[in-house]
Structures are given as C-alpha cells and as structure tokens.
C-alpha cells in the first residue's frame, strides 16, 4: 500500500504519478471529513444564560442531537472510505470523480444542518438534509462497486466474495436514509439516531464476527 508523499522515494515517473494520485485523494478525503465534523460542532447552539442545567439541555437538545447524528453519519462514511482506500492499489479518473462528488456532499452537511436547525428551514430543510445523505450513500456504494469491478484496482488477494459483500454492506447507507425523505422533522432524532447506532453496531461488531465464523 502506498504511504503519504515522500520525496525520498525512488520510483519511475509512472509509479510516482499513480502513487501521487492515490495519496493526494486520500489526504483530501480525510481533510474534508475533518472539516465537516468540525463545522457540525460549530453549529451547536448552547444557551448562554440558562437558569438551570435542565433548561440549558432543553435549549440545546435539538442542536446537540443533530451534531451527534451528523458526527455518527460522517464517521460511518469515513470508516467506509478508510476501509475502501485500504484495499486499493491505485485510483483512476472515474473513481476520483466519484470520490470528489461524495466529498462535495460531505462538506455540505454543516450547511444543511444550519438551514434546518438555525435558520428555520422547516420540512424543506429537513428533506434537503435527508436527500444529501441519501445521495452520499449512493455515491459511496458506487465507489465500492466500481473499485470491485475494475480490474487491478484492488489488491489481488481480496476475494470476489469480500469485494461484493462490502458493496452490499455499503448499500445499507442509502437505504438507511430513505425514511428521512418521508419522516417529519420532529420525528428525526427519535427515529434516526437509534437506527444509526443499531446499524453501526451490526456492521462494525456483529456482522464481522458472523462472517468470520461463516468463513
């Protein structure tokens, strides 16, 4: 696997260009995820002069739930991105375009939260947020599918079963956000936060153990 940029590396021009493309794309990805999660935290609004701790929690609960959910969602996408890049030998123009499209929407998450929670976006802002997450999930699935299908993009040691299992698992994300397109905004935190936590536990803890036993 390639490492971050190093001027001391001795390699052909073709290998250098391929490694450079891989390294810079993964660095940009990490930077965008860090930027999005940081801005999500900045969007939290806590009352400055709450008469009690309970009042402070009531006044900031909605924005805190939005931040927690957004951080969890960004974390899930980042974990998927990290796992995908760890299996890649190289990237090409199509994969780069898919990655940039997903990162474009990841960076938009704080703006959709701001529209929904701080600027009174209402139901329209809520569904914009849901649509953004849904399209992110579609693009993430396309990245996995393209990398699994494209010859020599992944390491040869990664089996076809593992590749397409990962594609199927990544398809859970857009399915997860389908309800957001139909839910009311007041049902958002109550319905979606437990679902996101459950999906995270199943995909990251239970399912890997189950698959390991099956293999």
Structure description:
- The protein is mostly helical.
- It has one domain.
- It has helices spanning 13-42, 53-86, 93-106, 109-118, 122-149, 160-170, 172-177, 188-214.
- The chain is elongated.
How would you describe this structure in keywords?
about 75% helix, about 220 residues, single chain, 8 helices, mainly alpha
Shape descriptor reads elongated
The string of secondary-structure elements, in order, is: HHHHHHHH
The assigned structural class equals mainly alpha
Mind telling me the C-alpha Rg?
19 Å
Q: What share of residues are in beta strands?
A: under 5%
Share of helix among residues? Answer: over 70%
> What is the CA–CA distance across the termini?
25 Å
Number of domains in the coordinates?
1
Low-confidence stretches: none
- Number of DSSP strands? 0
Largest sheet report: none
* Mean pLDDT rating: 78
Number of DSSP helices? 8
